């Protein structure tokens, strides 16, 4: 058994993508975490299945690591229950949890990765932090940029990507999936060095 490259993660890594369930939300900026997880599921080569944790899960291997892909079936602000339920079921500690989510304070097309930190007003992260009882889990932040003018950020994230953004979206989702793979195969510092500049 090989130890995961993320310190303290154990033998398996949980990759959670955040979003809201249902077709009416599928193209929203807030759902980019789900979009990245769907790309990763294609790379793992499997389909998500309903799990008693309240999430859809897929077990497999990615970048040489054993992974559990998780998409909560709850609304964004209740993400913590399903994510932590799956982590406990698979006996994965917080240090082995990676959350992929939208980030207003990062420009569209940019990625930022970090360990720990605040929730920056993101209700999904707030819920996970509360349920886990710690801020010390990994975040892969997919930039969606700030809303134009005086638009409320809460409304902005519940709108679909713009026509211009959609032209780049598939490429950016693919790149974010690459970043997740780099994080779990080479560690945080090396992944940051590769993906933060672009």
From TrEMBL:
<dbReference type="InterPro" id="IPR001328">
    <property type="entry name" value="Pept_tRNA_hydro"/>
</dbReference>
<comment type="function">
    <text>Hydrolyzes ribosome-free peptidyl-tRNAs (with 1 or more amino acids incorporated), which drop off the ribosome during protein synthesis, or as a result of ribosome stalling.</text>
</comment>
<comment type="subunit">
    <text>Monomer.</text>
</comment>
<dbReference type="GO" id="GO:0005737">
    <property type="term" value="C:cytoplasm"/>
</dbReference>
<dbReference type="InterPro" id="IPR018171">
    <property type="entry name" value="Pept_tRNA_hydro_CS"/>
</dbReference>
<dbReference type="GO" id="GO:0072344">
    <property type="term" value="P:rescue of stalled ribosome"/>
</dbReference>
<dbReference type="GO" id="GO:0004045">
    <property type="term" value="F:peptidyl-tRNA hydrolase activity"/>
</dbReference>
<feature type="site" description="Stabilizes the basic form of H active site to accept a proton">
    <location>
        <position position="102"/>
    </location>
</feature>
<dbReference type="Pfam" id="PF01195">
    <property type="entry name" value="Pept_tRNA_hydro"/>
</dbReference>
<dbReference type="InterPro" id="IPR036416">
    <property type="entry name" value="Pept_tRNA_hydro_sf"/>
</dbReference>
<keyword id="KW-0378">Hydrolase</keyword>
<keyword id="KW-0694">RNA-binding</keyword>
<dbReference type="GO" id="GO:0000049">
    <property type="term" value="F:tRNA binding"/>
</dbReference>
<feature type="active site" description="Proton acceptor">
    <location>
        <position position="30"/>
    </location>
</feature>
<keyword id="KW-0963">Cytoplasm</keyword>
<feature type="binding site">
    <location>
        <position position="75"/>
    </location>
    <ligand>
        <name>tRNA</name>
    </ligand>
</feature>
<protein>
    <recommendedName>
        <fullName>Peptidyl-tRNA hydrolase</fullName>
        <ecNumber>3.1.1.29</ecNumber>
    </recommendedName>
</protein>
<feature type="binding site">
    <location>
        <position position="25"/>
    </location>
    <ligand>
        <name>tRNA</name>
    </ligand>
</feature>
<feature type="binding site">
    <location>
        <position position="77"/>
    </location>
    <ligand>
        <name>tRNA</name>
    </ligand>
</feature>
<comment type="similarity">
    <text>Belongs to the PTH family.</text>
</comment>
<comment type="function">
    <text>Catalyzes the release of premature peptidyl moieties from peptidyl-tRNA molecules trapped in stalled 50S ribosomal subunits, and thus maintains levels of free tRNAs and 50S ribosomes.</text>
</comment>
<feature type="site" description="Discriminates between blocked and unblocked aminoacyl-tRNA">
    <location>
        <position position="20"/>
    </location>
</feature>
<feature type="binding site">
    <location>
        <position position="123"/>
    </location>
    <ligand>
        <name>tRNA</name>
    </ligand>
</feature>
<dbReference type="GO" id="GO:0006515">
    <property type="term" value="P:protein quality control for misfolded or incompletely synthesized proteins"/>
</dbReference>
<keyword id="KW-0820">tRNA-binding</keyword>
């Amino acid at each position: 058994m090989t130890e995961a490259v993320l310190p303290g993660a154990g033998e398996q890594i949980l990759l959670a993508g955040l979003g809201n369930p249902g077709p009416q939300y599928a193209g929203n900026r807030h759902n980019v975490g789900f979009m990245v997880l769907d790309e990763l599921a294609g790379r793992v080569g499997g389909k998500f299945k309903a799990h008693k944790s309240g999430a859809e899960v897929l077990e497999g291997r990615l970048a040489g690591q054993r992974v559990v892909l998780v998409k909560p079936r709850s609304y964004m602000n209740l993400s913590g229950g399903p994510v932590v339920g799956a982590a406990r079921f698979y006996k994965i500690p917080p240090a082995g949890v990676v959350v992929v989510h939208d980030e207003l304070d990062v420009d569209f097309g940019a990625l930022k990765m970090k360990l720990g930190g605040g929730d920056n007003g993101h209700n999904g992260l707030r819920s996970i932090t509360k349920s886990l009882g710690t801020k010390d889990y990994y975040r892969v932040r997919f930039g969606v940029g700030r809303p134009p003018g005086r638009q409320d950020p809460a409304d902005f994230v519940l709108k679909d990507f713009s026509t211009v953004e959609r032209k780049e979206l598939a490429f950016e989702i693919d790149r974010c999936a690459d970043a997740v793979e780099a994080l779990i195969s080479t560690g945080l510092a090396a992944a940051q060095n590769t993906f933060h500049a672009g």
